[in-house]
Each structure stands twice: as C-alpha cells, then as structure tokens.
Amino acid sequence: MEPSSTSLVFTVRRCEPELVAPVKPTPHEFKQLSDLDDRESLRFQVPNIQFYRYNSSMKGKDPVKVLREALAQALVFYYPFAGRLREGPGAKLLVECTGEGVMFIEADADVALDQFGDALHPPFPCIEELLYDVPGSGEVLNCPLLLIQVTRLRCGGFIFALRLNHVMCDAPGLVQFMNAVAEMAQGANAPSIQPVWQRELLIARNPPRVTCTHHEFDEMVETQSFITNNPLNKMSCKSFFFGSTQVSSIRKKLPHHLRKCSTFEIITAFSWRCRTISLSLNPQDQVRLIFMNNVRAILNNPPLPRGYYGNAYAISLAVTTAGELRENPLEYALELVQTAKANVTEEYVRSFIDLVVTKGRPHTTIVQSYVVSNTVRVGLCVDYGWGKAVYGGVAKIFERPSLSATTFYIQVKNSRGEDGIMVPMCLPTLAMERFVNEVHSVLNDQSDGGPMSTFIKSSM
C-alpha cells in the first residue's frame, strides 16, 4: 500500500465542547455492570473515526445539527451512556444514570476529503485535532462516557470521530448504538433494535466455579533473550496489506485438509509465526497469542437477548514455545489458532467470568504475547443519511511504540482499490527487518499484489 498522507497539515476550528443530554427525561438510577464489563483491562478509552463524502441529496442539511439532534434522541433509549461511572465497594464499578449527557464538539476543517488520499487508513493526519481530548474528560470515573466530534470538511463531507469508555460496551455494542443514532438522523422515532441492559446475565456464578484451564492471568516475566535481542529504544511500526492474492498465496502452502480455514485464522497464524521468528527468542521461551472472541452466538443458557450491548467477548489464548512455532510448518500455528477458537465454549466463558472475579479482576497477562483484535466485520461504516462511511474504524493504530500494543485488523482498500485487511505491526527495528524478510520469503513479493517494498508507516 502507498503511504498514508500523514504529512498533510490543516487547521481545525472547534467550538466550545458541550454536553448533549437525552431529549426527554430519563430514569435516575444506578445500573450494575457485568463481570465482563468491569475488568481492569477495559478501563480505558477507545477512539474510532468515520469519513463521509459530500452527498448532493443531503444538500442544505448540516451534519453537525442533524447528528447532535439524533444523538439526543438516541440517548433517550441508551440513557446509561448519558451517565457517569462511579466506584462502589470493593472497587466495583456502577453506572449512575444522571442524564448529564455525552460530550459533543462541533468543528470545521480547511481540508477536503480527497486530500487524505485514495486509500484511507490510520495513521491519520492531525488526528488529535479531529478527535480533541478535552482536558479532564478522559478519566474512567466521573467523566462523560462518550466524546463525539463532528468536523465539517471544505468539500461538503464530514468526519465523525468518537471516543468510548470501553467499560460500557464492546465494538458490536457500539455499532448498535451508532446505528440507533443513524436511524434517528433519518427520521425514525425509535431504534429498530431496542437496547437491552441485563448485565446480570454475565456475572459470576455463586459460588464461582473455575472449571476450565485458563492462561489469561498467568504470572510471567520477559525472558533474557527477549530483552537482549530486542532493544525497545528503537521501534519500527509498519502495516501490511493482505488481500485475496496474499491470502491465497499463504493458503496454497497449507495441507489440503486445512485450506478451508478462515481468512482471520490464516493471517493470524502467519503473522504470529513471522513475528515470533523475527524476535530471535531462545527455543524454550514461551510465546502466546491472544485474540478476542464474540460470545453472543456461543451463550445459550441463558442466551444473550437481541439488543444486548455490553461487553460480550472472551479471550482466546494459544501457548507454545518460540522453537516449536519456528521449526514447525505454518499448519502448526494454524491449528493452535483453531484450537484456541474452539476452546471458547459456553462453559469456558462462564469459567472465565468466575476466574475474573476470583482473581480480583486483574489485567490480562500480555508478556511475550501477540495480541490481536479483529475489527474487520464489526460494521463501523454507519450510514447517517450521507451514505456509508468511506472509512470507519479505529482512529489510531499505535498510541505509543510498544511490543505489547494490540494489533487491530482493519478493513481497507489498497491504492489499486482492492479490498483487504491491514495488519499493523510494531517491533524493534532489527526485528522488523527480519519480519519483512520472513513475509517476503513466503509471499514472493506480493504484499500489495505487487512490490513488497512499500508499507504504511505509522507516525509515532
């Protein structure tokens, strides 16, 4: 892929931030969070962004006004978002439904959408201006749970940027809320999917019963070879494009009985193995793969109702050694990925929730781990009336250079207009060189359906 236009510079003029409250009175009450919501590892803010082209059929309609009003209407149904998180006994979080509202910023930028380039993907230029961090607004407790900035563009298009407190919901839950806003923006009186709170469906059993083997909270330290061979003071962050050409090339190297595996499984196994090889670890060093599994379709006793918008994912985790991953063919890594997915049964999810509570809601262990979050099928390109977003997804791929940074799989088009998945990677500089060589050796110069020499560089 061609480099993103991170050198583009423009001016954003923002109005004073305001609070948008539900348009009608809503209950003042305290709401319990689930034990999948209330985890230390989710106490952070998630930035997302959507880019929209000018649409002549919407001429005369101001996206800021339309979206501000639609947001106020949607909050009547999703009124917990208009509240604030409080900390109760035992550091347990609660939502106080105060009706105060979400933070909203109106803005204008002296730039046209086309200036961002043909292939929209993070890192985006001037992202801090397009999603302004209002001082004092980003804490987990006692702060707005959503911050939204709508920026008009010179061409008539606009940018919708949003920051979410992850404790409140996961990506499918956020999309459900954004679709409700979109329906209100287009004249609906109520969302087509009624929101369901019912967070008690995902709390620990009484008494807790940890019945499955879990490695999410294992105590680990980085091995000496990891520290010695991978100086973290010089990091390189690049992104790689996997379209149908690249995925087919990898698939052909697999045994016939594994060739029907999913694109996610192929890319994850391939990138995990290449990454592990590039880090030059000792053969006996443990390496881990962590990825998220939506459990909405897994839970049946009881099932999660349609409209549930809380966090509803479990961690899939594969563990092996650097030597095993390096010396075995790709199918070894692939089968580890498939097994990790298959392990997430209903009992596994219930056991994990019980473990979270038993352990006191600790952070997930990410030492010597490749952490993946797949946003490809989430559906963030919401249509507010101007057509679907030309890009909808994460706003930032790396907050800071780190080996433990989550790799977000992002649906993108390359410079040729081909659909594919962007896989960001952050590694020590020397390890990145080895990673590129490893990818090159397998894909035979097809990382972009053409020369391997061009990457999307992440701005740090």
Task: Describe the protein in words.
With 460 residues, this protein is of the alpha+beta class. Helix 6 packs across helix 8 and helix 6 (263-278) packs across helix 10 (429-443). It is built from ten helices and 17 strands. The protein has helices spanning 63-77, 127-130, 171-185, 224-229, 244-251, 263-278, 322-327, 330-342, 346-358, 429-443; strands at 12-14, 18-20, 30-32, 45-52, 84-87, 93-96, 102-109, 146-152, 158-165, 235-243, 286-294, 313-321, 369-374, 391-394, 407-413, 419-428, 456-457. It is globular. Helices cover 24% and strands 23% of the residues. A hairpin with a 5-residue loop joins strand 8 and strand 9. The strands form three sheets. Strands 1, 2, 4, 7, 8, 9 and 14 form a seven-stranded mixed β-sheet that branches.
Integer-rounded radius of gyration? 22 Å
Secondary-structure content class: alpha+beta
State the end-to-end CA separation: 19 Å
Average predicted confidence as pLDDT: 90
Strand fraction equals 15-25%
* Dominant shape: globular
* Helical run tally: 10
Order of helices and strands: EEEEHEEEHEEHHEHHEEHHHEEEEHE
Summarize the biggest pleated sheet. Answer: 7 strands, mixed
**Total strand count, please?**
17
Low-confidence runs of at least 5 consecutive residues: 447-460
Share in helix: 10-25%
